[in-house]
């Protein structure tokens, strides 16, 4: 029997042992890194799922708010319309007082047998009247009555024409200016 002499046996064994130890250390470190990465990925996925749920919840809340806004928008439109109507009514009532005094001024100097079919009064004082009378002399008396008012000026007869139909008489159209003090409240 021959004995084999292994002079490197201790060195090879120690080197192999060191390599195994290093290999185990690398595997442990890589395993730890892999576990940390997996845990981080899992945590991020969990956060992502939580955020997706929050986004869905916010979308649902937004839909509810949008529905409420749509309902209140129609109510708001109605309220704005009502407010505009009340403002128009206020203006109408404020001007009614002024137009009432102006109409009173105009009718107080009218010849009673002349009829006014249409009257248009502007705040600037311009008045347009269309009416009818049984004769030219009644139209003249109406004009004379307007001239006698201190608050009426620039009376201008625009047109006259015979009436058509069963009634006999004449239609007339005239313009004049009404003084601003005729628009003041009584």
Q: Which residues sit in consecutive blocks of at least 5 with pLDDT less than 50?
A: none
Using only CA atoms, what is the Rg? Answer: 51 Å
Mean pLDDT: 81
CA-CA gap between termini: 150 Å
Which structural class do you get from the secondary structure elements?
alpha+beta
Q: Count helical runs.
A: 2
Strand-residue proportion: 15-25%
Order of helices and strands: HEEHEE
Q: In percent, how helical is the residue content?
A: 55-70%
Question: What's the arrangement of strands in the largest beta sheet?
Answer: 1-2-4-3
Which features would summarize this protein structure in a list?
2 domains, alpha+beta, rod-shaped, 60% helix, single chain, 4-stranded antiparallel β-sheet, Gyrase A, domain 2, 186 residues
What does this protein look like?
This protein has 186 residues and is α+β, with helices and mostly antiparallel strands. The chain folds into two domains: 16-100; 109-183, Gyrase A, domain 2, CATH 3.30.1360. Helix content is 60%, strand content 19%. It is built from two helices and four strands; from the N terminus they run αββαββ. The chain has a four-stranded antiparallel sheet with strand order 1-2-4-3, covered by helices on one side. Strand 1 and strand 2 (126-133) form a beta hairpin. The N and C termini lie far apart (150 Å). The relative contact order is 0.08.
Quick summary of this structure?
The protein has 186 residues and is of the alpha+beta class.
């Amino acid at each position: 029997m021959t004995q084999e002499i292994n002079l490197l046996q201790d060195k090879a064994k120690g080197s192999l042992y060191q390599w195994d130890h290093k290999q185990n250390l690398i595997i442990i470190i890589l395993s730890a890194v892999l576990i940390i990465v997996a845990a981080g990925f899992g945590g991020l996925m969990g956060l992502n799922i939580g955020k997706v749920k929050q986004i869905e919840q916010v979308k649902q809340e937004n839909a509810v708010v949008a529905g409420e806004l749509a309902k209140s928008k129609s109510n708001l439109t109605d309220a704005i319309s009502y407010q505009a109507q009340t403002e128009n009514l206020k203006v109408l009532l404020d001007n009614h007082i002024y137009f009432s005094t102006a109409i009173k001024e105009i009718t107080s100097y009218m010849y009673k047998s002349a009829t006014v079919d249409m009257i248009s009064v502007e705040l600037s004082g311009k008045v347009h009247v269309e009416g009818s009378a049984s004769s030219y002399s009644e139209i003249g008396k109406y004009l004379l009555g307007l001239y006698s008012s201190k608050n009426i000026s620039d009376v201008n007869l625009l047109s006259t024409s015979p009436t058509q139909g069963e009634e006999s008489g004449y239609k007339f159209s005239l313009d004049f200016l009404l003084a601003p003090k005729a628009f003041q409240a009584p």
